[in-house]
Design a protein that fits this description.
Helix content: 25-40%
Strand order of the largest sheet: 2-1-3-12-11-4-5-10-8-9
Mean pLDDT: 97
Bound molecules: 3-isopropylmalic acid, magnesium ion
Number of helices: 11
Strand content: 15-25%
Structural class: alpha/beta
Shape: globular
Distance between the termini: 21 Å
Radius of gyration: 20 Å
C-alpha cells in the first residue's frame, strides 16, 4: 500500500516560506511519480512572532509527535530578541523531540560550483553527523558583576556518555552503509579535556564495527584538511558546536550555504528537516533565493519516511539540473526560486 504521511510545515521567516513552497512543488512531483501522499498542516511559527512578544512554548512542540515529519524553512529575524526564537523553536524542537542526530550531507552536485581548483564531485562527498542535543548549545549561562569591569559570563559545556554513545553509534552505522566505510571523529580533546570522553567512547563503539575504517582529528586540523583534501572525508561525527561550524565550511565547498540540507533526526520518530541556510532577510520576498537546500531537505525527509527511492530520485534530479546547466548556480539571484524548483520537478 502506498504511504500516506502527515507533515507539519513551518515556513518561518525571511526566505523560509518561499524556499519551502518551492520544495513542496517538488514534493508534489515526487508524489505523482511514486504514488505516496502527504497531508500538510502549516504552523505559523516564526521569529517574527517574537517582535510582538509572542513565544513558541514546549506545550506547542509536544503535539508535533503525532506527525510523521516536520519541514522547516528558516527561523530568524533581525528585530526579534537575539537568540530567543532560536532557543524556543530551533533548540525547542531539537531537544523537545530528542532529535539527537543532525545529519548534514555535503554533496558537490557539479564541479563548477566548488570554490577549490580542480575538484570533482567525487572529491567532495561527505556527511557531517552533528550531535544535536548537548554541548554549550542553547544554555542560559550565567552573568556575574554585570556592567562592571569584572563582568564575567560563563556557560556549561556538557556531554553525557549516553548522548555521546548514541551519536557515535549512529555515525558508525551510517559509515558502514556507504561504499567507502570511513568515519572521522572531530573534537578538540587536546584543549577541551572533557572531550576525552569522545575518544574513549569512539574506541569502545568501534569494536562493533571492525569493517569501518576510522580516525580522529582535532577540529582545527579537520577544518584545514576539509579544504586541502576533502576527498579524505566520508562520514564525520562531531559535537554540536563544531558540527555547526564545519557544516558551513563543508557547504561552502559544495557551492555555498544554499546547497545544504539537514535532518534533525531521532530514528523511528517524528523528525525535522530543514535547509542549513538561515532566513536571509535581504533576499526575502524577491523570489531569488536558491531552493536547493529546502529541496534537499524534502529528499532527506522522504528517506526518513521510508520513501528511499523518491529521495534518491530528487537528489538525482538536482544533480542533473546542475550538470546540464539548467540550474545556473546556487547564489541568490542566479535563477528565480520557482524556476529552479520547476527544473527539478520536471526531471522527476
Ligand atoms: C544551524 C543554525 C542554528 C544552529 C542557529 C540558527 C541557531 O546555524 O542549524 O546550523 O546554530 O544550530
Ligand atoms: Mg549553523
Amino acid at each position: 500500500m502506498p504511504g500516506a504521511y502527515r507533515i507539519a510545515l513551518i515556513g518561518g521567516d525571511g526566505i523560509g516560506p518561499e524556499v519551502t513552497d518551492a520544495a513542496l512543488s517538488v514534493l508534489d512531483a515526487a508524489e505523482a511519480r511514486f504514488g505516496f501522499t502527504t497531508e500538510r498542516t502549516p504552523l505559523a511559527w516564526s521569529a517574527q512572532l517574537y517582535i510582538g512578544g509572542e513565544r513558541v512554548t514546549p506545550e506547542m512542540i509536544e503535539p508535533l509527535r503525532k506527525y510523521d515529519a516536520v519541514l522547516l524553512g528558516a527561523i530568524g529575524h533581525p528585530d526579534a530578541p537575539r537568540g530567543l526564537p532560536e532557543m524556543d523553536i530551533v533548540f525547542g524542537l531539537r531537544r523537545g523531540l530528542d532529535l539527537f542526530v543532525n545529519l548534514r550531507p555535503l554533496v558537490l552536485y557539479d564541479e563548477r560550483l566548488c570554490p577549490l581548483k580542480g575538484r570533482t564531485a567525487a572529491d567532495v562527498d561527505m556527511v557531517v553527523v552533528r550531535e544535536n542535543t548537548e554541548d554549550v548549545y542553547g544554555m542560559p549561562g550565567r552573568t556575574e558583576a554585570a556592567g562592571t569591569a569584572d563582568e564575567t559570563v560563563s556557560t556549561e559545556m556538557r556531554f553525557t556518555r549516553r548522548g555521546t554513545e548514541r551519536i557515535i553509534r549512529y555515525a558508525f552505522e551510517l559509515a558502514r552503509s556507504r561504499p567507502r566505510k570511513r568515519l572521522t571523529l572531530v573534537d578538540k580533546a587536546n584543549a577541551i579535556r572533557i572531550q576525552d570522553l569522545h575518544r574513549r567512547v569512539f574506541e569502545e563503539v568501534a569494536r562493533e564495527f571492525p569493517d569501518v575504517e576510522r580516525d580522529a582529528m582535532y577540529v582545527d586540523a579537520a577544518s584545514m584538511w576539509m579544504v586541502l583534501h576533502p576527498e579524505r572525508f566520508d562520514v564525520i561525527v562531531t559535537t554540536n558546536l563544531f558540527g555547526d561550524i564545519i557544516s558551513d565550511l563543508g557547504a561552502a565547498l559544495c557551492g555555498g550555504l544554499g546547497s545544504g540540507a539537514s535532518g534533525n533526526i531521532h530514528p523511528g520518530r517524528v523528525s525535522v528537516f530543514e535547509p542549513i541556510h538561515g532566513s536571509a532577510p535581504k533576499y526575502a520576498g524577491q523570489g531569488v533565493a536558491s531552493p536547493i537546500g529546502a529541496i534537499g531537505a524534502v529528499a532527506l525527509m522522504l528517506e526518513h519516511l521510508g520513501e528511499r527511492e523518491a529521495g534518491k530520485a530528487i537528489d538525482a534530479a538536482i544533480r542533473k539540473g546542475f550538470t546540464t546547466g539548467r540550474i545556473p548556480g546556487i547564489e541568490a539571484g542566479s535563477a528565480p526560486t520557482k524556476a529552479v524548483a520547476r527544473v527539478v520537478a520536471q526531471a522527476l
